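Before the break, one more example. Copy the sequence into your notebook; we will annotate it together after we see the structure.
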Amino acid sequence: MKALIHDFSEYLRIERRCSPHTVSGYCHDLGRFANFASDRKIGSLNTSDIREFLIFLREQGLSGASIARCLSSIKSFYKYLCVDKQLENNPAEILNTPKSYRNLPNVLSSQDIDNLLNCPDKKSFLGLRNKAMLEILYATGLRVSELVNLKVSELDLEVGCIRTMGKGSKERMVPIGSMAKKAVNNYLLNSRPALLKGQSAEEIFVTKRGGCMTRQGFWKLLKRYAIQSNIQASVSPHILRHAFATHLLERGADLRSVQQMLGHSDISTTQIYTHILKGRLQKIHQQFHPRS
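Here is what the structure looks like once it is written out:
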């Protein structure tokens, strides 16, 4: 089965143009399935075997969302094998993915965000870089992978927007505010050349050795600043993405615009924020309706 999983990963990478992170996720899930199936051939596995695997995952303590993701990976894998004529029947086809109820994670307050963004030392080269990265992330709601892969050619400070390639190689334009523009311009003029030391790089954000910033590197500096800011809530790049969306909606942005800026292909993904809209509409009703 491992050889088939490798072929599937190449299909995802080359034909589907999935990101390395997405391909890694599929391979991780299918690797679990392969270990569970042991040395059995893929054609000998049936629907009951897949159900037993899902039960095994639950007994191992995996969350409902993780189990649903594993089943989704398996269904995609079997569909690929059938289309590729390596299997005639798809035993995963009749399995229903369990509904997962998505809860909005802890949202940072505006004060938390201010404290976080003011942490970097603006007198150091790395501090100027970190300030620019934090400002861009909060100003645009980018995914962390989109942030570290952002190229100089995709930034337009004059217009005040960035062009980024999101999931499924879908391109979108996202505006940036004046604070982020100022921080990025400061970094480009006063920090990036010193970090590159005469080298060249397509990516905007580079390390002190002139290489491209990594997702792990950004996670580490964000965690350090969260502790420094004394923020009690959990802080991650995705939490900043949620803060971006939440604060926009709280101030009157419409859901469809936020969907486009986040790069969600389906608005149902964005609808975890609808409780914010409901709360605002209720306040407006109470304030202006004559019978409220």
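The chain has a mean pLDDT of 87. The beta strands are 155-156, 161-165, 171-175. Try to locate both features in your own notes.
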